[in-house]
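Hi everyone, sorry if this is the wrong subforum. Our group has a chain we'd like a structural model of before ordering constructs, and none of us has done structure prediction before. Sequence below.
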Amino acid sequence: MVAVAAAIGMLSGSAVNWLADTLPLARRPTRPRCIHCGGLRPKWAWVAWADAIRAGSRCAYCRVSRGPRGWIVELAGLTLAVWLFSRGAAPIVFVPGLLVGCLFLLIAVIDIEHRLILQVVVIPAALFVILGSVVQPARGPVKTLAGGLAGLVILWLMYLLGLAFSRWLARRRGSPLDEVAFGFGDVMLGGLIGLIVGWPGVIIAVITGVLAAGFFSIAYVGLMLVRGRYSAYIPIPYGPFLLIGAALVYYGGRTALEGLMGGG
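Answer:
Right subforum, don't worry. Here is the predicted structure as tokens:
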């Protein structure tokens, strides 16, 4: 059964790779193509590990490497599935847990690679979570919707603050910023995270995400200063850090986080 769970997790990771390759370009699922030459990938190359073994992860047409992201995501899916299975998760827990993890992976990969959080991902996922809350007595639609509303409002306020700062900075520099770190896609993501973790877990998820982003920014700035490559106001994708906070809450870290924050 562990092998079955591992296979399910790896195939789920392959699905994440497929959607991460196609949705940013077509806004709908299509056959995966090489991002360098546009050539269609053979069916066996849809699984990154199979592609690595058979063709060295190189495009069949242009021979350019597809990079490590494919097998890293598949390994993450495998690890999550095995971990859920090892915890004795019943199907009613295993399936949503794996789906949520794959959703988080998909959003994070697209945000890191394209600086996008897509409506075509967030809106269907939000509707699915709302419908699913009806059959979850422990949560129910009230806590789910309250969490979604709270996440939306909190991230919208952060978006407005970021927008005001960007406008102030642009006036000070005398030129508009090419990119801002915090966009409206993050607001939609806040609403989705709130729906998934519910109320009041969304508060802990957002605070944890903000702290994770802050620690990363400090470490990144320090590294760039040491290497002599620092440049002010470099935006970083914010979504992955919000997803870290959401994952810690969703997968059972809420009690520990409350203890660290003095909440008991």
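For your construct planning: Confidence is low (pLDDT under 50) at residues 255-264. The radius of gyration is 20 Å.
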